[in-house]
Design brief:
alpha/beta, 7 strands, about 20% strand
Length: about 190
């Protein structure tokens, strides 16, 4: 997973509330387990609508309750594969938000007024270390769990976190071999 420090650029605006993961990536594209190749099917049904245009920018600005519905991991995969590095909305579904942080896609919850101001400005800079989003004419702070922040700043996915504990795991395994299995004594 690539480390995140700052994300700067134009924003793509999806001015819709309650965007379900089924709308982000429809079910007919979920037949693979690879994390790549889903970007071309992002918002597949909406992309057929006249006038649909979602530029490939590093930041997606969306409405409230983004990523609601099923807990499919493919939705963050599709957003990342399309080129998004951060999603800014006023609220996210919890499982969606967690799935994003596990692959290095940064979900940022701001107030509806701040989200609207960023969409209007058309560009932003996300500073993960400083926990701020800046745009022409404004700045907003955002909250992030310290463990998740550490993971994202250092590019640590679940496997990298486990490997970082390799010595402790090996010591535990050596100790178990020496003392035998743990048993429940009543």
């Amino acid at each position: 997973m690539k480390a995140i420090e700052t994300i700067t650029g134009r924003v793509s605006v999806l001015n819709r509330d309650d965007v379900d993961t089924d709308q982000i990536i429809p079910k007919q594209f979920l037949k693979r387990v690879e994390r790549t190749g889903f970007g071309e099917f992002l918002f597949y049904d909406w992309a057929k609508e006249p006038g649909w245009d979602l530029p490939k920018n590093p930041i997606l600005v969306a409405g409230r309750n983004f990523g609601c519905g099923s807990s499919r991991e493919h939705a963050p995969w599709a957003l990342e594969d399309y080129g998004f590095q951060a999603v800014i909305a006023s609220s996210f579904a919890d499982i969606f938000k967690s799935n994003c942080t596990k692959i290095g896609l940064l979900p940022i919850a701001l107030t509806p007024a701040e989200v609207a101001a960023i969409a209007q400005a058309g560009e932003a800079q996300v500073d993960l270390a400083g926990q701020e989003v800046r745009w022409p004419g404004g700045v907003a702070s955002f909250e992030i769990d310290p463990q998740i922040k550490h993971r994202l700043l250092n590019g640590l996915d679940d496997i990298a976190l486990t490997l970082a504990e390799d010595e402790a795991i090996s010591a535990y395994e050596r100790d178990r071999e020496r003392t035998g299995p743990v048993t429940n004594a009543l």
